[in-house]
């Protein structure tokens, strides 16, 4: 029997925008008012992450990657779609309450400036009954050691540390409830390049030592290539390509991924951020019909403007949402 993935997201839809009140709904019903503009952040996303895997989630600003991370971590509820944890509906699975933790880009925002680091790290495991107050100091010291900080850090405040050290504190805090999956949302984006490398190495070490699984969100192709087993490319709320990282970087299948990599001439360069692809990312308030990428796609044809391409398997373990591959298959 196949082992179910650690986390599976099926048919996830998430919109943002004002919900009309009863008067506005009446006006819309009578045709006096247009429907309110809503941002279509996720438009039918299917991804799964196997235990011990690192799945990279890549996209431009506005692609929906952070929203997907928050849905995966349970911080946002989708309008439609299912979240499955080891094959079971996640909301009915108590382990999910602390089986998934999030690591943020700016740990300062989630670290209470009035609490000492030891209290910050111990807060969640004490709430979940994982440790007693008597065991707290030793438990926190063990976590600080795991992320490369000494036990003395427990008595200080987060603002007394450098950016890289605060990132380590954020990771220790996430690990404190013994998660199986870390959803990492641009966790090194705000750090200097040399510090980035150290924190990325720490993620790699922790994965090996603790058997962790990561959903690793980044706009930085170099970071993703360094750390991830598979990569999902997101464009305007849809997964357009999903493939093993080495295969995706060697031979991207989707025209959007091809454009991203073509416009990133050297992944070794210090700045590996997205640079301009032909045309602007369309507004998620009114995404283009058919294939969302068609206004920017050099290979678009008539069908692309009308019909959404399904994400389909184009080779073992490789998926792309593009009519060209449908025709070829
Ligand atoms: Fe380009 Fe058409 Fe493929 Fe979309 S479906 S990526 S527009 S060729």
TrEMBL record:
Which GO-annotated molecular functions does the record name? ATP binding; ATP hydrolysis activity
Its GO biological process annotations read: peptide transport; transmembrane transport
Kindly give the PROSITE patterns that the UniProt entry links to this protein.
ABC_TRANSPORTER_1, ABC_TRANSPORTER_2
Highest taxon of source: Bacteria
Which SUPFAM superfamilies does the annotation name?
A: P-loop containing nucleoside triphosphate hydrolases
Similarity comment: Belongs to the ABC transporter superfamily.
Pfam families noted in UniProt: ABC_tran, oligo_HPY
Domain ABC transporter: where? Answer: 23-261
Which keywords accompany this UniProt record?
ATP-binding, Cell membrane, Membrane, Nucleotide-binding, Transport
InterPro entries under this entry?
AAA+_ATPase, ABC_transp_ATP-bind, ABC_transporter-like_ATP-bd, ABC_transporter-like_CS, Oligopep_ABC_C, P-loop_NTPase
- Provide the protein name: ABC transporter ATP-binding protein
Q: Can you tell me which residues the record assigns to a coiled coil?
A: none
Give the PANTHER family listed for this entry: D,D-DIPEPTIDE TRANSPORT ATP-BINDING PROTEIN DDPF-RELATED, TRANSPORT ATP-BINDING PROTEIN
